[in-house]
């Protein structure tokens, strides 16, 4: 049977939530053959990035040296209250990820228009995985989007922007929290990402055994 199902005809959807997989008071949600965890707002910490909706709440991260990068994973926790842009990641010549919490305007993954919105007052995990063949998006540990990777390279650097760029209109200014922003120089596995999502521990940094790899922790 496929993972998450049982029975002679694989007709039984196993309830993984019975085993209480979500840590730190997270709430388990059962899906068709899988599950995810929602995490309490109380799990936030003092050093989260908080955006207060003013024109000064953009954070520009310095350019990261990433020459000859062939794989990439970006993971973070977010709790965004406003309909606004709050993160972008781009190489020295093309955008990879642009996240916007809005019903009106889409986020973009590898130039593909997608809808990624969570405005329920809870923390959610987002991961973007890129290799030479495919790209994947995970929300709360569940693979929700995928596509083929067309030609992409990082000749020199990556640029990460947290919050919106300066000078945007009042209604587009971001309000909310970001935490646990990590960029890895390897495509993390589905199990790696699931284990992060069920921990409901946004402040924790996750170090994987990545031979000759790099990790940036924001």
From TrEMBL:
Disulfide bonds: 1-10
Alphabetized UniProt keyword annotations: Disulfide bond, EGF-like domain, Repeat
UniProt keyword Disulfide bond, yes or no: yes
Pfam families: Laminin_G_3
Residues covered by the EGF-like domain: 1-11, 13-48
Record-linked SUPFAM superfamilies: Concanavalin A-like lectins/glucanases, EGF/Laminin
Coiled coil: none
Stored Gene3D superfamilies: 2.60.120.200, Laminin
Keyword Repeat (UniProt): yes
Molecular function as annotated in GO: calcium ion binding
Name of this protein: EGF-like domain-containing protein
Organism: Biomphalaria glabrata (Bloodfluke planorb)
Lineage of the species this protein comes from: Eukaryota, Metazoa, Spiralia, Lophotrochozoa, Mollusca
Underlying gene: 106058084
